[in-house]
Amino acid sequence: xxxxxxxxxxxxxxxxxxxxxxxxxxxxxxxxxxxxxxxxxxxxxxxxxxxxxxxxxxxxxxxxxxxxxxxxxxxxxxxxxxxxxxxxxxxxxxxxxxxxxxxxxxxxxxxxxxxxxxxxxxxxxxxxxxxxxxxxxxxxxxxxxxxxxxxxxxxxxxxxxxxxxxxxxxxxxxxxxxxxxxxxxxxxxxxxxxxxxxxxxxxxxxxxxxxxxxxxxxxxxxxxxxxxxxxxxxxxxxxxxxxxxxxxxxxxxxxxxxxxxxxxxxxxxxxxxxxxxxxxxxxxxxxxxxxxxxxxxxxxxxxxxxxxxxxxxxxxxxxxxxxxxxxxxxxxxxxxxxxxxxxxxxxxxxxxxxxxxxxxxxxxxxxxxxxxxxxxxxxxxxxxxxxxxxxxxxxxxxxxxxxxxxx
Length: 407
Ligand code: PLP
Fold this sequence. Notes:
Layout: H1 15-30, E1 37-38, H2 50-63, H3 79-90, E2 102-105, H4 108-114, E3 125-129, H5 134-141, E4 148-149, E5 152-153, E6 156-160, E7 178-182, H6 194-207, E8 210-214, H7 236-239, E9 240-245, H8 247-250, E10 258-261, E11 267-269, E12 275-277, H9 278-289, H10 295-302, H11 307-333, E13 337-340, E14 346-350, H12 355-366, E15 368-369, E16 371-372, E17 383-387, H13 392-406
Parallel strand pairs: 1-15, 3-6, 3-7, 7-8, 8-9
Antiparallel strand pairs: 2-10, 4-5, 9-10, 11-12, 13-14, 14-17, 16-17
The site of pyridoxal-5'-phosphate has 14 residues, from helix 4.
């Protein structure tokens, strides 16, 4: 008899976005003449930089010609892209990462989800709350948790992000083996300083733990004192893997390209205490289960590092940050506490009421959709996330409507 992986039965239905969709549709049906402005989603709205489009086209043409056609590529990515990543994203900022430590992939979602396969099932895991749900759900699927009780999975150490700690979790109260961190953070927009990150790296070194550092939003960092990479922090090469993406950096959410950094100096242990290279394990997993990113997409990603590409990608980020600044300004002027939006595309607003109540109020009174914080974990209750991924005119209009509705 074929049996299922019963861990899947522990998963909670992805209630958040379906419920947002349901409530928005009901509102639209009741008010067919009112136009909803969506500031809930985390997807980009601007097209790819022209430099990427040109490189993409050129590479497609190469595939049409017998002398330049390419078949299967290297699973971990072409050297032309890995070299640029290592040089521009790491070495140029003083981070000691080499091209053969870069694994090009089709998404930070897939990589943050798949990476747990190379670790034992009986390790202790620390996951932030509120959180990007992929870290938690993939560990539930793998059987690293108990059941879901009172809003939390048994067996997980939750790292609480609260107003008191500025949404930078404190070190765990008990010893953990694997730690997920994400900065700039989704959903809170919080950023971490080098010294705060150093505390985590030191903890990992002292406890033979490993940090999985999700830096999918690094391109939004404006403050040069903030680390863009965990490898800007001393000792991180031994205890951290990093996930990056072209999705938000250059509008690749529909084109798909990302990468994971696995330093050769990162090791983990067998049950008998022997050390093993994580680079070798991830290389084995990646080459066995992943076919690589298509050649034209990698050429398009490479173009992000050209002079024009850098300028154009910068303009995209600036566009969204201008939206974020407007949202922050208007929401603060209405008397709400908020964080994020200065080095991130998300603004995390303390609504001083139930998240869903706040969501409904903005929808009903202003026709604006946000994301209720409670959907990202228990610590998100009372907050909403407003996303800067939209057109400036829409953001302006949304803010005008919210001002009128709440004034
Ligand atoms: N990590 C975080 C924190 C995200 O918010 C997202 C997307 O919203 C991702 C990863 C996914 O990135 P990608 O598009 O590269 O899969």
